[in-house]
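Open question from group meeting: does this chain pack into something compact, or does most of it stay loose? Before anyone orders reagents, we agreed to write out a predicted structure and look at it together. Recording both the input and the output here so the notebook holds the full record.
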Amino acid sequence: MVDSARLRLGVNIDHVATVRNARGSQWPDPLRAALLAEAAGADGITAHLREDRRHIRDADIDALMAGLTIPLNFECAATAEMQAIALRIRPHAVCLVPEKREERTTEGGLDVAGDEARLAEYVAPLVAAGIRVSMFIGHQPDQIKASARIGAAVVELHTGHYSELHAEGKLVEAAAELVALRAGATLAHGLGLEVHAGHGLTYENVGPIAALPQVRELNIGHFLIGEALYMGLGPAIEEMRVRMDAARL
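Structure tokens returned:
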């Protein structure tokens, strides 16, 4: 049976830090943005600590852990450095993502099936520490099955390709990608994994993803930070919340 609980919204605040770092000052403050998101109805905060610290920094993660009352989803690559940080701070969740220095943003899902033995060893101490582990993956069945085998509690399905097709007006192709995402969500749910989704979601394309009954959480960042320039962060989040809820009716 699919859980009928309210769809959660995680707000990614990475690009508040991107703006701050562009000027090399203390402003805008990612923690302040996270607290505004919390007040606007966000169910959690996502922050990606990259190896090169291009946006979120270690001090930001410490401030978020100290200042938030909603869960922190700590995104990171599966490196020894990031595992040590996660075990020190003990966030609510760790979402493992692929990471390349030259990319502007995460370009695809993690290859869990191709790195299963190492990732199983990597995940085990996090699970033992009581941290929920999520794998940021594509909708391919082998990646979903491998995520279940290594002990992850959650898979976050990468919606970037769907979002790009939608933005380009390729609606037939976007519909086909949605079918594949739906099949992936169904498989993951059947294997006992909690299903999340995210990447590239906007007001215009979020509805069909939010309507997938197996999906329990959406993680959205860049679009909301952009909309905040026009309408403020709180109202931008509230509007996304309205559209997510409408898709579940």
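Observations to bring back to the group:
The beta strands are 8-12, 44-48, 72-76, 93-96, 132-137, 154-158, 194-198, 215-220.
The chain has a mean pLDDT of 94.
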